[in-house]
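A reminder from the course coordinator: this example appears on the midterm review sheet, so study it carefully.

Given structure:
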């Protein structure tokens, strides 16, 4: 213990983070002290310093060459094209080459729900929670293709235990337990405006999830990629937990990837209007990319092609297919972190809880779409909102349980 404390003090002194010793000194039990020292030793202080320095710089894309990206409209495929892609994709699924990853690290706080977002009751007559709705889709795919489809569910430190218990309590909603693997999303410390690592209300290092782009590193760290390789997986669909119309077992998207010989396919929706606040697929300096709505000029947002369609109209909806080779490569890279300025409660050096009224802390997140730029090319498949996209993000209004429930029930009444 003494040796560990000495090691921690040297580290904190080196990086100017001595304020963490105040929190350590307030801990009264030995196990708590040990745990706190261990948590400090896991922090990458060099990375924390780099992230803090990056908070002083504004991202600029003025020197990037932004161009439209080609896409394939699923609804406009000829019968022959559709059947060809379907046959290619179906063969891969039946051979057991597909795995599905669901990002489910979030809590349902914005929905007024206490617990993992996947445990939220959408308000259907059946009262199925989101996890059961997604499992229904997975079970239908297994039955249709007669194939085992491994399902990897990314949780978080906050909701992992509750998520696993929820699945166990409900007998995994009929999905084979041996095909479901839980793994945890990574975290990064939150920093004050002067670069100090904060301490949370429980006296622990204040951390926040490292964004959906952190999924690749988490898959590597938790042995998911190794497990996929051992199972002979070639294609991996990655989507979010909150889209109740997600179509993770889709032969068309696999067929498109195989035919175009690309290592990734992104599903897109056409923008509702030029000013819709969504990231859009594009080419940045010749590489596939997503440009955020905050980065695109009004002129570019409104630009149309010879058919009168928006040149930058393909919204990124976090429904992406990756080849195992791409996931392996990306997992060993460092994706850039984006900075969010947030309100964060913390314990000050005197042990007082501070509840800010204004943003006071930096949170750092990697975005999955930044991985696209590591690829030479990718395909974009435009799909229909009413068939594949019903997100549950807000308590009311746009992308709320009401809108998702209507899209979901309308879709299933047409099936």
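Designed residues:
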């Amino acid at each position: 213990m003494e040796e560990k404390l000495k090691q921690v003090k040297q580290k904190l002194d080196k990086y100017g983070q001595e304020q963490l010793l105040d929190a350590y000194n307030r801990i009264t039990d030995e196990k708590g002290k040990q745990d706190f020292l261990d948590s400090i030793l896991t922090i990458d202080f060099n990375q924390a310093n780099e992230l803090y320095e990056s908070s002083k710089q504004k991202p600029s894309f003025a020197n990037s060459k932004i161009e439209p990206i080609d896409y394939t409209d699923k609804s406009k495929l000829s019968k022959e094209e559709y059947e060809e892609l379907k046959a290619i994709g179906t063969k891969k699924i039946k051979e057991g080459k597909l795995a599905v990853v669901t990002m489910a690290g979030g809590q349902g706080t914005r929905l007024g729900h206490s617990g993992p977002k996947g445990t939220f009751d959408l308000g259907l007559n059946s009262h199925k929670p989101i996890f059961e709705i997604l499992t229904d889709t997975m079970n239908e795919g297994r039955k249709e293709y007669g194939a085992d489809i491994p399902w990897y569910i990314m949780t978080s430190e906050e909701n992992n235990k509750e998520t696993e218990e929820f699945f166990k309590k409900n007998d995994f909603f009929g999905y084979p337990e041996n095909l479901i693997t839980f793994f945890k999303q990574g975290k990064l410390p939150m920093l004050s405006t002067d670069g100090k690592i904060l301490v949370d209300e429980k006296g622990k290092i204040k951390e926040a999830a490292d964004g959906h782009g952190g999924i690749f590193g988490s898959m590597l760290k938790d042995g998911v990629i190794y497990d996929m390789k051992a199972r002979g997986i070639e294609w991996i669909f990655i989507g979010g937990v909150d889209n109740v119309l997600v179509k993770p077992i889709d032969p068309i998207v696999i067929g498109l990837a195989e035919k175009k010989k690309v290592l990734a396919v992104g599903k897109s929706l056409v923008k509702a209007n030029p000013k819709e606040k969504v990231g859009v697929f594009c080419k940045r300096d010749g590489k596939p990319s997503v440009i955020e709505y905050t980065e695109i000029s009004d002129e570019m947002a409104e630009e149309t092609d010879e058919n009168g369609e928006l040149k930058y109209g393909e919204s990124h909806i976090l429904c992406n297919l990756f080849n195992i080779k791409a996931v392996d490569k990306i997992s060993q890279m460092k994706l850039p972190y984006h900075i969010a300025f947030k309100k964060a409660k913390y314990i000050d050096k005197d042990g007082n809880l501070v509840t800010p009224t204004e943003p006071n802390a930096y949170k750092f997140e990697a975005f999955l779409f930044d991985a696209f730029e590591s690829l030479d090319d990718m395909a974009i498949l435009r799909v229909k909102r009413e068939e594949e996209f019903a997100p549950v993000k807000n308590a009311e209004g746009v992308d709320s349980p009401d809108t998702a429930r209507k899209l979901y029930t309308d879709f299933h009444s047409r099936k």
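The first helix runs from residue 2 to 15. The mean pLDDT is 93.
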